[in-house]
Amino acid sequence: MAAVGGRIVSRCVSCLSRTAVFRRIHRPRNICTSTAVCCSKSENVSHFEDKPEFPGSRSQFTSRLEFLEPDRFEGIPVYRVMSRNGEIPEKDQDPHLDKETVLKMYHDMTLLNTMDRILYESQRQGRISFYMTNYGEEGTHVGSAAALDPRDLVFGQYREAGVLMWRGFKLENFMDQCYGNVGDKGKGRQMPVHYGSKDLNFVTISSTLATQMSQAAGAAYAFKRAQNNLCVICYFGEGAASEGDAHAAFNFAATLDCPVIFFCRNNGYAISTPTKDQYRGDGIASRGPGYGMVTLRVDGNDTFAVYNSVKAARDLCLRESRPVLIEAMTYRIGHHSTSDDSSMYREYGEAGYWAKKDNPINRIRAYMERQGWWDEKQEQEWMKDSRSRVLEAFSKAEAQKKPNPELMFDDVYDEIPEHIKKQKDQMKQHVNQYKEFYPLDIHEEMT
Ligand SMILES: Cc1ncc(C[n+]2csc(CCOP(=O)(O)OP(=O)(O)O)c2C)c(N)n1
Ligand SMILES: [Mg+2]
Predict the structure, then answer these.
(1) Which ligand neighbours the alpha carbon of 246 most closely?
(2) pLDDT tens-digit profile of 146-190?
(3) Quick count: other Cβ atoms within 10 Å of Cβ 436?
(4) Which residues lie at CB < 5 A from ion ligand 2?
(5) Is 424 in the same domain as 390?
(6) Domain range holding 428?
(7) How far apart are CA 263 and CA 296, in angstroms?
(8) Catalytic residues, which ones?
């Protein structure tokens, strides 16, 4: 390797070190003189005039036997707009959202929080069978939902209730689903938190991890063919990204140039498995370039940064008809679900840090206070009002009957086949014969 040029002080293009002394090697690029393996072997050296002709290859030949070290580069940066105290240091990054929009963001984030508390408690009291809270991730929901067109199709994982709330899913709708009562659009046939709404373009949750990912790629392909100028957004956890279906989804979307935003909520845990035991690479974002996808990592606790990211991703998706991967860094403050006890696998105080010090709700509130749009008195009033709204919806849902049990046989087939009809008749006969063992009084009557 012929070293030319003098010594200069700058940032090494290879190891990105600032303190090292540099040499210019071959092309005018700054390479650290450090003896570190990553730096000394950083430049491509080719003694060949031809370029690789292998199908799918787009690089050069090299005479260096050099492994690609995953730690050679600094981590992918986290895009942020707002500091923890609600300041926007780079004015050109301010999304300039109007007061009404920011207040709606705050109202939805806090209402979701209050709803989570009440429904979590109601599970603990045995009133519903299961629940999952969204604590800490409210900024990823509301920031992303606000940047979309309401006609864009949403595929969720299960911890995205704020997206639905932003689109207009009412407290009653959430409660009816969790109680599985006659008001539930799913007719009481799903576990709590498996929401869905055709009117709001939100595909019903299926908690089998990552199934929504390849469906989202397929839906985006259909959108592309329909040329409807809409995109698909697919939410998933960093844990779900370890499923094989995630690979299929990324690769289909990339090779078929599908307008889909893959929005990863990296909240640090897949139930009890922390990210350090889930992967060795630089999070989920580092996988994007491997699939040929444009990629961005964002501070998920910064609602404005999430908003800007999804808005830009949406434009890109539609303009260039290609998928975008966004990794939103956040933290799951609550237990995974009511079936989990996170004190068994994380230190006391760890979640508390995120609840108090780095929390999306606190951050947007600090912004609103700086703008003079919010104060303690408004906060107190809103907290009282939102709590009573949640409690009212909760009491109404609890008082409603459960659906007619016969409905469990509907909606899988367009026309119920004979063998299912037979099962339905057997169920009715059995229940009628052993009435005293079934809580028929809380259900709508069978025909
Ligand atoms: C195919 C499949 N495997 C395992 C599970 C059990 N399971 C449910 S949620 C979960 C963790 C998912 O973690 P992540 O994707 O990070 O989402 P988060 O819960 O953190 O929001 C697991 C393993 C499942 N539902 N589906
Ligand atoms: Mg997770």
Answers:
(1) 1
(2) 999 999 999 999 999 999 999 999 999 999 999 999 999 999 999
(3) 6
(4) 237-239, 267, 270
(5) no
(6) 405-442
(7) 10
(8) 121, 207, 336-337
